[in-house]
Structures are given as structure tokens and as C-alpha cells.
Amino acid sequence: MSNDLINRSALMQSLRNNVLVDVTQNLEQAIAEQPAAYDMDKVVERLEDYLFEKYCVEGDTKIDEIVKSGGID
């Protein structure tokens, strides 16, 4: 599994802004149809379940913030 996670919207915007790339409808569709690398909501859910089972920690919103920020402060 690759560690490369990209934002489809950002990729399309970058391609549209590049005059050397002809962004065809087929290319846009192919990018749009790519599966998500992971589901952030599922990751948060599993982490919350783990923390509850292991440490009885519940309702920690910091988990959601960290996961949805992609680890970027």
C-alpha cells in the first residue's frame, strides 16, 4: 500500500491551472472515480472504540481534530 494520499479536488485544480496539461472530461472522471485512501470517519470511530475498550476514554474530540487535519497542526 502506498503512503501517497492526495486530495482529488486539489489535484484537479492544479491540473486546470497548468496550461501544459489538457484536462479532458475523461481525465476528470477518472480522478473523481478513484477510491478514497481511507475513510476518516471510520478511522475516528475505530480509534474511539479502541480508546474506550482499552482505557475507558469516551468523547475525546481531539481524536477527530487530529485525524481530520491529516496530522498537520
Describe the structure.
The protein is an all-alpha fold and 73 residues long. It is elongated. It contains 4 helices and no strands. It has helices spanning 8-17, 25-32, 40-55, 61-68. Helices cover 58% and strands 0% of the residues.
List keywords for this structure.
mainly alpha; 73 residues; 2 domains; 0% strand; 58% helix
What's the SSE blueprint?
Elements: H1 8-17, H2 25-32, H3 40-55, H4 61-68
Helix pairs in contact: 3-4
Overview in brief:
58% of the residues lie in helices and 0% in strands. By secondary structure, the protein is an all-alpha fold.
The strand count comes to: 0
* Beta content: under 5%
- The oligomeric state is single chain
> Tally the helices: what do you get?
4
Mean pLDDT metric = 79
Sheet with most strands = none
Q: Helix/strand/pairing class, anyone?
A: mainly alpha
Q: Low-confidence segments, ≥5 residues, pLDDT <50?
A: none
| Helicity level | 55-70%
